[in-house]
Design a protein that fits this description.
One of its GO terms (biological process) is autophagosome assembly. This is Autophagy-related protein 101. Keywords: Autophagy. With 261 residues, the protein is an alpha+beta fold. The protein has one domain. The protein has 6 helices and 10 strands. Helix 2 packs antiparallel against helix 3 (74-91). The protein starts with 6 loop residues before the first helix and ends with a strand. 37% of the residues are buried.
């Protein structure tokens, strides 16, 4: 079940902690492996949909007799697909994986703080396109936000791994903000105001009957997740920062894939 610590209690116990949505991992059969990634995608798209507060083009994802909300936008698709790339690597080891979706308040950056680099090295020693090159065909509102975030990550050492991340790496999109721990001594890390923890647990079943029951159970678990997200966004609103503009993602979003404990 999902659980969250009310803002009033957070201020007394740990003022810097984000409001957190923590849902029990969805239990899935080991086969087909593609289903595990599809479920993670549906969960992640649902979370991003609820925090895409600007002008959106909604779409839906149908999976295991459930319908999930999503945003029809290429940058959102790229953000989630990059996180899924990291998740696939962890799933291949067995056990399960968790996506940690952190959402940050925006803070404007001066142009001088941004890098003008057009490429960044890859692990193979070549180069991959910068945020500017990759997003050049997207609407200008997306370019102004996503490119500044990618360049800031490149300049100041924040993790921005949209070109083939591994487990533990994070991918980001949204407004201008330092969304990870800074490498500069004495500079405090940005703390997300909200965090979502969603994942899947992979279990091997011996018989077809057990697998069939597992699919039915997964469908019910996903329905419970959808209900929990609606309850969460309805109950917890006071912690949301003010929205400065009509950008699709007014708050920067960072997704990391970590092993499921």
């Amino acid at each position: 079940m999902a659980a969250a610590l009310p803002p009033s209690q957070r201020s007394q116990a740990a003022p810097q902690q984000p409001v957190t949505f923590a849902h029990s991992p969805i239990v899935l059969p080991a086969e087909p492996a593609s289903l595990q990634v599809k479920v993670l995608a549906a969960l992640a798209h649902t979370v991003v949909f609820h925090r895409a507060l600007g002008n959106t083009r909604p779409r839906t994802i149908t999976l295991l007799e459930n319908t999930f909300p999503a945003v029809h936008d290429q940058l959102v698709d790229d953000l989630i697909e990059a996180a899924l790339t990291a998740a696939r690597g962890e799933l291949s080891k067995g056990g399960g994986v968790q996506l940690v979706i952190s959402i940050y308040a925006s803070s404007a950056l001066a142009p001088s703080q941004l890098s003008s680099e057009e490429s960044r090295p890859t692990s193979a020693g070549g180069s991959s396109p910068s945020g500017t090159a990759r997003l050049k065909n997207l609407p200008i509102s997306w370019i102004s936000q996503a490119v500044s975030l990618a360049n800031q990550a490149y300049t100041h050492g924040y993790t921005f791994s949209g070109y083939g991340p591994s487990a533990g790496d994070a991918v980001s999109a949204g407004g201008d903000v330092a969304t990870a721990k800074s490498s500069r001594p004495g500079q405090e890390a940005q703390v997300p105001f909200e965090q979502w923890r969603i994942g899947v647990r992979v279990v091997s079943f011996k018989t077809e009957h057990e697998r069939s029951k597992a699919f039915q159970s997964a469908s019910k678990q996903l329905a419970a997740f959808l209900d929990a997200t609606i309850d969460f966004v309805d109950r917890f609103k006071s912690h949301l920062p003010s929205v400065a503009d009509s950008s699709l993602l007014p708050f920067p979003i960072r997704i990391s894939a970590v092993p499921l404990a």
